[in-house]
């Protein structure tokens, strides 16, 4: 993984997050497959492979989770450094999540403009389907849609990427 910065969160899993804006300044929201409401909407995110450039990881994760290929987006910006959240004890101690060896996730966040058409969005594009539905929404609503223990990160994302929104 290529980051070019020191690691303030050595016990957190390296991850990328993607804020995808349409031409009207709305943000792409995906509903987590099989996750009950009310906090089942989120932005695309996923792990960074060993020796993978972080922006390349963001584009790969975007394609895997939404079907949107790199040629259908343009780079808007990124948040410098890591944003992180800890898994709450009930998640770390749940036997279904025994593979979560990390305290939480540290994320590098990128903003892209969607330049394609809605026909370019395919939630079934990857074998591991993340989302069962999607919609365009307001950037300001994302902190209230995410599970509470990720909310601080989403508030930081909303503040940092506000210039790309037309709210």
From TrEMBL:
Protein name: RNA pyrophosphohydrolase
Functional description taken from the UniProt entry: Accelerates the degradation of transcripts by removing pyrophosphate from the 5'-end of triphosphorylated RNA, leading to a more labile monophosphorylated state that can stimulate subsequent ribonuclease cleavage.
InterPro entries assigned to the protein according to its UniProt record, in alphabetical order: Nudix_hydrolase, NUDIX_hydrolase-like_dom_sf, NUDIX_hydrolase_CS, NUDIX_hydrolase_dom, RppH
Nudix hydrolase domain sequence ranges: 11-159
Gene Ontology MF terms: pyrophosphatase activity
Transmembrane segments: none
Pfam families documented for this protein: NUDIX
Cited SUPFAM superfamilies: Nudix (SSF55811)
Enzyme Commission code(s) on record: 3.6.1.-
Class in the EC hierarchy, top level: hydrolase
Residue span of motif Nudix box: 46-67
Cofactor: Mg(2+); a divalent metal cation; Mn(2+)
Gene field: rppH
Protein family (similarity comment): Belongs to the Nudix hydrolase family. RppH subfamily.
Record's keyword terms, sorted: Hydrolase
């Amino acid at each position: 993984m290529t980051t070019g910065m020191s690691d303030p969160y050595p016990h957190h899993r390296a991850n990328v997050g993607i804020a995808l804006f349409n031409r009207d300044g709305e943000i792409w929201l995906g509903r987590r497959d099989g996750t009950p409401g009310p906090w089942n909407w989120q932005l695309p995110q996923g792990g960074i492979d060993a020796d993978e450039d972080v922006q390349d990881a963001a584009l790969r994760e975007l394609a895997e989770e939404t079907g949107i290929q790199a040629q259908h987006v343009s780079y808007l910006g990124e948040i410098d450094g890591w944003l992180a959240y800890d898994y709450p004890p009930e998640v770390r101690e749940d036997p279904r999540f025994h593979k979560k060896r990390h305290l939480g996730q540290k994320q590098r966040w990128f903003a892209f403009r969607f330049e394609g058409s809605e026909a370019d969005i395919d939630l079934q594009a990857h074998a591991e389907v993340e989302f069962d539905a999607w919609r365009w929404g307001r950037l300001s609503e994302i902190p209230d849609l995410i599970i509470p223990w990720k909310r601080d990160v989403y508030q930081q994302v909303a503040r940092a990427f506000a210039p790309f929104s037309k709210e």
